[in-house]
Design a protein that fits this description.
Shape: elongated
Number of domains: 3
Radius of gyration: 29 Å
CATH superfamily of the largest domain: Cytochrome c oxidase-like, subunit I domain
Strand content: under 5%
CATH architecture of the largest domain: Up-down Bundle
Number of strands: 4
Number of helices: 30
Largest sheet: 2 strands, antiparallel
Distance between the termini: 105 Å
Structural class: mainly alpha
Helix content: 55-70%
CATH topology of the largest domain: Cytochrome C Oxidase, Chain A
């Protein structure tokens, strides 16, 4: 049969490679910036556009969708053409895919820094960009399936199975998770609320990792690893088992991100079960990759591309074992909300995704430019820099995670939390954050070495945009012969039918999880005490989302003693029914805020405290790593959008009274004036329409609806504290060891309001004078500390400290600060 002549489109591959290199530098550099901000909060620069809460989503989106996304397209467009012996179906669709994707990336960076976000991890982009993503992704899929139809080979190779699963999986995930109700061009609300939103989000979040960071890279592994090793894939049968079992099981595992949280037990059990089952297919893929190198390990010694690919497959095996282990409840209570998750994600991102991309580029660029790699030595330097960076990143964060978890749950002999102040546990791990900066700089340096190496390779080579080739035309094979062709080989000849079966395998798991959560009411029991947000509280919640506070703070108290003692009552499913979107968080860089509005609770602070804390956290406590939000006291609430927000909530079932949108602004201003007047009593002048007022209102809403009383009942944790401390004689402790212990307690609990010298911060009282409202005798000071002043935001420390500790604190205040 005469060969048909055609030309491969290499130009589109080159464009995606160049985009990969550019966005790789940007994404890693932004990662170094946010790592530095956690260790040195001054690097937030006091600007609203450069805070950690806004910049961190830029990093995740830049790495996942810009760097990794462009690498996927580069690898797919090259390998599909070669495997199917044809040019891509449509040049126009290819270039629409390229330019559309770059526009999405730029819009993402601009809008996220501007504070336009949905507040849903890995899906932060607002609805106009979501629509653009849909259009570009459809163009990519259309081009892929069109190319499959015009192919010149009978059977679809394993790599393309994974590309198909990627296209179909991401299409399903993106559409379902992006159902939102627009309020304006850059503001929308998720149509799901509370636990339903959480389930949908982590079904999406977990499977975004699966179908954007795993399946396409398995496809790249199945193509580029055999090419670089010049060996066939180890096992075709194992490829089949690996593919179908993995894409089916992955879709069920999302709820393992929500263990011990306000989620029905059946959903948690489902997530754990399927997560453990995922070990088998994942390791099947790892084994298939590593055994492909049988008889070729000598080449690994000499080839940096193969070194990267081997480390990538190894990191894939490690991550896919660690992930299921983290889904076990006994392990999850350690890892969740700690830096263990961050380390886990980066072993996958830097090791698996980075390794595949680097290995692919070191093999692909010389192929495209018809030349040898400029310097194998530089490539090997890059390899060792990257590998060391991964270790330097992960090991300190694992250490930090275990350290912080042990501190969270540690109790002293009297039965009190040893570290009741969250900041105590954070300060201990900040040095680990400093080490992480070194890792990021090293990884960025290695990337720049690769950039130089590939640039020199391109300059030395000769690139052909349209590479001439030829192949015989595809001849239809006819009906299946059971004696010569297995069912799967027959399916590989039927691209559309194969795609349908992939869709079915993917759809089942998501449907089983999501449909019951949305349509079976018993999964979301309601609480009569829970009321909708007032207009002012709703505006404050939108600011909380916009500023990215969910990046550092959770709103989910798990049913562990050490969490309820530190934060208050554990979270219930029914308290989140009006939360569009949910804000449970996934990492605690700051304390949980789910009970910040419970007056008398351990997390309650008054309006003046919140004002001063937002204005200058380091003035409140010099060890804080939170950026300041001073602009909230300057910028006004956009009252013109408030009625539309109320109407949107009503349309989603929030029970505001009919016509409430017409008086929502009046109610907002009335509540705002109450807070403004309260601040004025504390010497703080601020207009009621400022964003700061809305944020304070939201803080005071959190958890308030489920508290049994306006002022939470205070119960003693120890019989050693007298029922009426003022009636007991308090003898001051003058030993230096006791005074040192008192100073440590003061620095932990009191500095945030009274300053390091006790002279008071802002409106908070000076402890060094004699003007104490309740008196400053030893017994009176002891009683003030014991009982607190809940209306002013001071917690009753008899719930957190022993009698001896309160006596030490009293002694420090009176002897050292007042010099009695």
């Amino acid at each position: 049969m005469e060969n048909q002549k055609f030309k491969y489109d290499n130009k589109i591959v080159k464009l995606f490679i160049l985009a990969t290199l550019v966005w790789g530098v940007v994404g890693i550099l932004v990662g170094v910036v946010i790592a530095s901000q956690l260790a040195f909060p001054v690097l937030n620069f006091g600007l609203e556009f450069t805070t950690f809460g806004r910049v961190r989503p830029v990093h995740t989106n830049a790495i996942i969708f810009a760097f990794v996304g462009n690498a996927i397209f580069a690898g797919v467009y090259y390998s599909m053409q070669k495997l199917l012996k044809t040019r891509m179906f449509s040049d126009k669709l290819s270039y629409f895919n390229f330019w559309g994707w770059q526009i999405i990336i730029v819009l993402a960076a601009v809008t996220l820094l501007a504070g336009f976000t949905t507040g849903k991890e890995y899906a932060e982009l607002e609805w106009p960009i979501d629509i653009l993503i849909t259009l570009v992704w459809v163009a990519f899929g259309w081009n892929m399936i069109g190319t499959l139809i015009i192919r010149r080979v009978q059977h679809i190779y394993a790599a393309i199975w994974w590309y198909l699963a990627t296209f179909i999986g991401i299409a399903i995930l993106h559409v379902v998770n992006s159902f939102e109700l627009p309020i304006s061009l850059f503001k929308s609300y998720s149509i799901y609320a509370g636990v339903q939103d959480a389930v949908v989000q982590w079904w999406y979040g977990h499977n975004a990792v699966a179908f954007f960071l795993t399946t396409p890279f398995l496809g790249l592994m199945y193509y580029y690893l055999p090419k670089a090793a010049n060996r066939p894939i180890y096992s075709y049968k194992l490829s089949i088992i690996h593919f179908w079992s993995l894409i089916f099981l992955y879709m069920w595992a999302g709820p393992h991100h929500l263990l011990y949280q306000a989620l029905p037990d059946w959903a948690q059990a489902l997530g754990v079960t399927f997560s453990i089952m995922l070990i088998a297919p994942s390791w099947g893929g790892m084994i298939n990759g590593l055994l492909t190198l049988r008889g070729a390990w000598d080449r690994v010694r000499d080839s940096a591309a193969l070194k990267f690919l081997v480390v990538a497959v190894t990191a894939y095996g490690m991550s896919t074992f660690e992930g299921p282990m983290m889904s076990l409840k006994t392990v999850n209570q350690i890892t969740h909300f700690t830096d263990w998750t961050i380390a886990h994600v980066h072993i996958g991102g830097m090791g698996w995704n980075g390794g595949i991309v680097f290995g692919m580029l070191y093999w692909l660029v010389p192929q495209l430019f018809k030349t040898k790699l400029y310097s194998e030595k530089l490539a090997n330097i890059h390899f060792w820099m990257s590998t060391l960076a991964i270790l330097i990143y992960a090991i300190p964060l694992y250490w930090a995670a275990v350290t912080q978890w042990l501190m969270w749950k540690d109790y002293n002999a009297e039965g009190f939390l040893t570290y009741p102040n969250f900041l105590e546990t954070l300060v201990q791990i900040v040095p680990m954050y400093t080490v992480r900066i070194i890792s990021g700089v090293l990884f960025l340096g290695g990337f720049l070495v690769m950039l130089f190496n590939l640039s020199k390779t391109m300059a030395a080579g000769k690139f052909v945009n349209d590479e001439a080739s030829s192949a015989p035309a595809l001849v239809p094979a006819g009906a299946r012969n059971p004696l010569r062709e297995t069912i799967h080989r027959w399916m590989e000849r039927k691209a559309v039918r194969f795609s349908i079966w992939v869709f079915i395998a993917l759809f089942i798991g998501g449907a089983v999880e999501i449909i019951p959560m949305i349509f079976i009411k018993s999964n979301v029991p309601t609480l009569d005490s829970v009321t909708p947000y007032t207009p002012l509280e709703l505006e404050g919640r939108d600011l909380y989302v916009s500023e990215g506070c969910y990046v550092c703070h959770s709103q989910m108290v798990r049913p562990f003693r050490w969490e309820t003692d530190r934060y208050g009552e554990y979270s219930k499913i029914g308290e989140f029914v009006y939360d569009h979107p949910y804000q449970w968080g996934s990492r605690r860089t700051g304390p949980d805020l789910g009970r910040a509005g419970v007056i008398g609770g351990p997390m309650y602070k008054n309006a003046a405290w919140h004002y001063n804390h937002f204005m200058d956290p380091q003035k409140m406590n010099e060890q804080s790593i939170m950026p300041n939000y001073a602009w909230l006291a300057v910028k006004n609430i956009n009252l013109s959008k408030t009625p539309a927000k109320i109407k949107a909530m009503q349309s989603m079932g929030v029970p505001y009274e009919d016509g409430y949108s017409e008086k929502a602004v009046d109610d907002l201003m009335e509540q705002a004036r109450t807070i403004s007047d309260d601040l004025k009593l504390s010497g703080i002048e601020i207009e009621p329409q400022k964003q700061m007022i809305a944020m304070i209102a939201y803080m005071h809403k959190l958890g308030k609806d489920i508290s049994n009383e306006s002022f939470a009942k205070v119960e003693l944790h120890s019989e050693s504290i007298a029922a009426d401390p003022q009636k007991k004689e308090v003898k001051l402790l003058k030993d230096q060891a006791d005074l040192d212990a008192g100073k440590k307690l003061f620095d932990t609990h009191c500095v945030v309001c009274h300053g390091p010298e006790g002279k008071g911060i802002g409106i908070f009282p000076d402890l060094t004078d004699n003007e104490w409202i309740t008196g400053n005798s030893p017994a009176q000071v002891f009683k003030s500390i014991s009982d607190g002043n809940v209306s002013k935001g001071m917690v009753p420390y008899k719930t957190q400290l022993t009698e001896e500790q309160i006596t030490q604190l009293t002694s420090y205040i009176l002897i050292t600060l007042q010099k009695k």
